[in-house]
């Protein structure tokens, strides 16, 4: 890490702390040449491989932006979107890979979005999974209904 004051290529770490989300480390550094102190934030890099083959850094904001479109007119707040994006990032980081395909990010979005708002989930899934016919929508809706029925069955069994 170059010193931002004198451009010395060396620095000494004085203090390290994990950030609030646990995904980055804040380090307090001091330059041995000029004595200047500065902070750095370090994160493990996570790159996205787009369909075109272009590689770019993962962005929670891009996840939020894509999901925001599906949530238009729905009772979903920015805080909900931020939590969803954080959950998606944690999921893709758990794969242990430093590069992830956009398809895998889409799959990681579907689960949390379904839990957040089923209508937004259907909107997102219809674009992401390229629904072509009414039957595609019907199949997705039937799957949601089946999951609701099985969840009720589990609840009923646990209340006995």
UniProtKB/TrEMBL annotation:
GO molecular function: ATP binding; DNA binding; zinc ion binding
Gene Ontology process terms (BP): negative regulation of DNA-templated transcription
unnamed zinc finger segments: 3-34
Domain of life where this protein originates: Bacteria
Keywords associated with the record: ATP-binding, DNA-binding, Metal-binding, Nucleotide-binding, Repressor, Transcription, Transcription regulation, Zinc, Zinc-finger
UniProt cross-references to Pfam families, sorted A to Z: ATP-cone, Zn_ribbon_NrdR
Coiled coil regions in record: none
Cofactors, names only: Zn(2+)
Database matches in HAMAP family: NrdR
Entries under PANTHER family matching the protein: TRANSCRIPTIONAL REPRESSOR NRDR
Known role: Negatively regulates transcription of bacterial ribonucleotide reductase nrd genes and operons by binding to NrdR-boxes.
The family this protein is said to belong to: Belongs to the NrdR family.
Protein name: Transcriptional repressor NrdR
The organism of origin for this protein: Microbacterium imperiale
Annotated gene: nrdR
């Amino acid at each position: 890490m170059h010193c931002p004051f004198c451009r010395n290529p060396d620095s000494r770490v004085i203090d390290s702390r994990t950030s609030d989300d646990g995904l980055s480390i804040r380090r307090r550094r001091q330059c041995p040449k000029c004595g200047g102190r500065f902070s750095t934030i370090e994160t493990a890099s996570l790159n996205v491989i787009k369909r075109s083959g272009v590689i770019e850094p993962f962005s929670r904001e891009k996840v939020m932006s894509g999901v925001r479109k599906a949530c238009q007119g729905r009772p979903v707040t920015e805080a909900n979107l931020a939590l969803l994006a954080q959950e998606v990032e944690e999921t893709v980081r758990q794969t242990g890979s430093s590069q992830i395909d956009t398809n895998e990010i889409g799959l990681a979005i579907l689960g949390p979005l379904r839990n957040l708002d089923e209508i937004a989930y259907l909107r997102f899934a219809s674009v992401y999974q390229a629904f072509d016919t009414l039957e595609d929508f019907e199949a997705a809706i039937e799957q949601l209904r089946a999951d609701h029925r099985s969840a009720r069955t589990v609840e009923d069994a646990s209340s006995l």
